[in-house]
Amino acid sequence: MKTKLTFLFLLLCFIAKAQTVSPDNRIVVLGHATINVPADQVKFVVILSSVDSTSVDKVYQKHQKQENKLVKLLKELQIPAKDINYSLLTVNQLQNYNNRKRDTYFAGHQTVGFLLNDMSKFSEVQSRLIKDGFTTIRSGFESSKMEEKQTEVMEKAIEVARAKATVMAKSANRQIKRISKISDTEDKDPDFQNYRQSEMLNEVVIRGQSSMGNLVDEFPQTIPVSAQVKVVFELK
């Protein structure tokens, strides 16, 4: 029995050694790729704010009126429930100093976001929001093909890494054999960097009616999506 265990241990050690790629027999390269995804959606974020200096209950009442009005509008616009998200209402007691006098008041805050899948209706939707009293609005571009393009950009990043490894191996009179490991630069799962226009525009507060119909028709927008990977190639 002892002999069998010793043989098994030696066999496992041999297999582990055989599977380990020597540092002299591998090459590690970084691959980076970026693709531009056509924007075909608009993300709206509506800020609901209510303030009262006498009672927190009045803040809730004021907020409820705004919320009911927005729910009605979203139903009229036929925005699917799956494309609507929101935060919980936050209520704070705040203080304001005016002429050395401390005034206390209550303030409520909630954000409601929804996705518009027809960009041609941007101006119409924005106008409806403003006419209904929702004048603090953020908006930005989105894409319905983001998930699909994330896979594509990862594949391109790996191909870039392969091309670099091929050139580097050739300069050493070697050839790449196969990929033994893929990760991002932090040695974890591959990382996606999605620099969306919505994130660059989301601090714009809209307080008047505007139109982007002509701009969208003449200058279609894209969203850059990037991926960077670290690939370990085994050499022949």
Could you walk me through the main structural features you see in this protein, from its secondary elements to its overall organization?
- With 236 residues, this protein is of the alpha+beta class.
- It has six helices and nine strands; from the N terminus they run H-E-E-H-E-E-E-H-E-H-E-E-H-H-E.
- The strands form two sheets. Strands 2, 3, 4, 5 and 6 form a five-stranded antiparallel sheet that branches. Strands 1, 7, 8 and 9 form a four-stranded antiparallel sheet that branches.
- It holds the Pfam family SIMPL.
- InterPro entries: 26kDa_periplasmic_antigen (IPR052022), SIMPL/DUF541 (IPR007497).
- This is SIMPL domain-containing protein.
Features:
signal, 236 residues, 6 helices, 36% strand, disordered N terminus, 5-stranded antiparallel sheet, 36% helix, 9 strands, 26kDa_periplasmic_antigen, 4-stranded antiparallel sheet, SIMPL domain-containing protein, alpha+beta, SIMPL/DUF541
Q: Which structural class do the helices and strands define? A: alpha+beta
Strand content: 35-45%
What does the overall shape look like? elongated
Mean pLDDT: 81
Which regions are unreliable across 5 or more consecutive residues at pLDDT < 50?
2-18, 195-210
Number of helices: 6
CA-CA gap between termini: 40 Å
Number of strands: 9
Biggest sheet layout: 5 strands, antiparallel
| Helicity level | 25-40%
Radius of gyration: 28 Å
What is the string of helix and strand elements?
HEEHEEEHEHEEHHE
